[in-house]
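In this section we walk through a basic example: taking a raw amino acid sequence and producing a predicted 3D structure, encoded as discrete structure tokens. The instruction is simple. Fold the sequence below.
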Amino acid sequence: MYGVASKSAFAITTTTTSVPVAVALLLATLSVSSLFRPVLSEADSSEAALQEFIICRQCGTDIADSYYIETHKSPSATIYSNITLFGKRGVDLQVLINPIGIQFKIVNTPKALCSGVGDWVPADSWYPGFAWKFCVCPQCSTHLGWIFEPTLTATADRANPSNKGFYAIIVDNVLSEKLVQSLMVSPDLIQS
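The resulting token sequence is shown next.
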């Protein structure tokens, strides 16, 4: 746990967060979300300005851009909600349960920077006709979700999804860039 200081009218107070210092330092110096977004028209730019980059909760590595979140409804979803998440309206959040009973809140995106590990597994897929493999943070190897690929194209030499495949990102294992930035403190606020 790390403390974040804030300056009030009378004193400096400290609140506790679970954001690693590395995340705060990374975001203080670098924002790469614009590298993943296409060039947008003026009409589209106001919507894109509300969206944000999604980072690994453990180490702060850039994982995905909320601009690309899309819907892949799973017939296995126990809960399905259309919400505003990561600065994007209309995000389809699904709750899925794996064969051993663990629940995961996930969102889908066709583009992400997490690394696929292991072999493609066609059994126990939440998406019929798709094989899956684990997806981990390329920096710290935290499990961030899964890659899903149509079974016909899920070959041993395919590391990333094709244009018909996608990533399922575990919401509880990532943070939004703007949330972390809101928790950061300027050195000027700490001085009295």
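Looking at the output, two observations stand out. Helices lie at 21-29, 42-50, 177-183, 187-190. The chain has two domains: 2-63+177-185, 67-174. In the next section we compare this with other chains.
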